[in-house]
Amino acid sequence: MDKKTKRYIFIISFILFLLASFIPSPFRIIEEKASYYGVPANWLGLHESGGFEFLWIGFIVDVALFYMICLFLFKIFKKLAKTIKNKEADL
What are the transmembrane regions (predicted)? Predict the structure, then answer.
């Protein structure tokens, strides 16, 4: 797999990561004066006072997880496309 493909997969996974983080879900933690966002690990805390909290470990875990999922799905679809192409060539 070339560098360009990996970059595209990373961009797609990062966009999916951001979308999944801000979609209301049961994973969002709401405390008395703060809301924490991130799926599966919380990485952003927004406080009622207007402040925010950035949790680096959660951010890195979430980005890495979404990247691995997208990479795995890409490889599966690539193998399926190759299998379908070979079956069509046999006909």
Answer: 7-27, 54-77
What single-letter amino acid sits at 80? Answer: L
Evaluate if pTM is beyond 0.85: no
Within a 10 A sphere around the Cβ of 8, how many other Cβ atoms? 13
CA distances from 26 to 23, 30, 39, 52, 85 (A): 10, 10, 10, 21, 41
Q: What span, in angstroms and rounded, lies between the C-alpha atoms of 42 and 21?
A: 8
